[in-house]
């Protein structure tokens, strides 16, 4: 986790194209700041645990998440089934472990998708300005007016169900924030002397944007991405909870919570335990995002 | 001031225009022919052409948009495909419960957030600070639909203090209505309080660091008076903006919360309409929801301008 972030965050901290040695130093300094932030380290630990859970789901899960009748239906947690069983007698722990996959894939891919689209729009709007800027940003204003979950619901209505569509539906809501953050920083960076120098040296506009502007606005974008993953996962769970997510019997935390609602009196574990998994993930990602913001974003550094 | 108001209102119309184009485009992207859906299984080619012309689908997209927009500006959101009720009536009936949930949640959120944010800022880095900020992250990170189920499990199933589901308008039967709103409002309001408490803390810390506060402290003003009489009013100004910006998030959260508590609001209406492919309702609900968000944002911005003299003068 730490490595790729260092490399990309660096240019923003030292825009004057630092030598390789200086880069190593800045990365180490960043890591020391990050390691001192207790919440951030806790968040990183949770995130790593969830990633491990998702990657090695087939090894870690004691049962097939789709197999029915591996135990009696609606059984409370026991030594046999640590998180109990659901109304089909499926092993809840296995379903929760596999559920981490959907949550992570949807959360991370949706944010990456939104980031690529939003950052591109923000770069173009900020650098070119004028009518291009006006048109792009008015569309972003319109998108921004939609509450994210409502936009996602509308997108699901248009596109129909399935994991791929959930990713797109969640991503659409996060495009506008990325475009806004990127544009604001591009406007500031655009006036820097080194951009002027590149322009005078005859570098083409797309090349200036890609090679000189983008690296210098990367840090706030990375922070923004880290902060948004939890929101994307919450949105996906919300869609799944409403029955608009990946179709059953896919093990998804949101739909597991929804299924358990009917058994809240006799088998409360069916709703509560997947919710704990979801909540721990969100708390972890929020702590990690806050930590990255506090240690990476140069404007916030004290 | 007048110029600020006018430009802000102009921006709002621009946003509403974009929103209307987005919603129109979304509704046209839905696979399937709406004319076929309205006609059912048994129809003649002539009837098909007649309805198509009547709905304006044989004209250009721009004309279609203009016809569509005209109808919406008249307040005509169309009729439900299924039971032919007016969408505007259905949406209005569903909007009121959602709105009362959002307002009740804001009240709960502010009641929790203001004291915990102030305590956290006044005793920075103390156990109080860690405790209330930890609580803030915790409630902020709990998905509202799950929190609602846990609250039902504790307070309805076990303690039997509150009804698990159901809704009554608080203005029709105050006690009954309020009673039924308590759990849903705690569910959504604590989420909101987590967010607001963090903003109040950082905003208050920033204000407490300013020169006029230092001067007051040098004059020997007591710490409590410093916070309540000198700092708080200024610290709360940015909070107003956050409350406005979060209205949309709250509305989205209400959609999920009301599903848990069986409140017949916008969320239930929209989701049922999606599953029934009743797109006139989906479109109407989304338009009204976004309109509410945009209007609240405008109102908050204008209030903010009143509160903040730096903008008022400019």
What value does the average pLDDT of chain A take?
83
Order of H and E elements of chain B: HHHHHHHHHHHHHH
Instruction: Specify which chain pair forms the largest interface.
Output: A-B, 44 and 49 residues
Number of domains of chain B: 2
Radius of gyration of chain A: 22 Å
Q: What percent of residues of chain A adopt helix (DSSP H or I)?
A: over 70%
DSSP strand count of chain A: 0
Could you name the CATH homologous superfamily of the largest domain in chain B?
Answer: MetI-like
Q: Give the H and E element order of chain A.
A: HHHHHHHHHHHH
Largest sheet of chain A, described in full? none
Shape of chain A from CA axes? elongated
Radius of gyration of chain B: 24 Å
Count of helical regions of chain B = 14
CATH topology of the largest domain in chain B: MetI-like fold
Beta fraction of the residues of chain B? Answer: under 5%
Q: State the major sheet of chain B.
A: none
In quaternary terms, these chains amount to heterodimer
Total number of beta strands of chain B: 0
Q: Regarding CATH, which class of the largest domain in chain B?
A: Mainly Alpha
Q: What structural category characterises the helix and strand content of chain B?
A: mainly alpha
In summary, what is this structure?
The complex is a heterodimer of chains A (302) and B (314). With 302 residues, chain A is mostly helical. Helices cover 74% and strands 0% of the residues of chain A.
List keywords for this structure.
heterodimer, A: 302 residues, mainly alpha, B: 314 residues, MetI-like fold
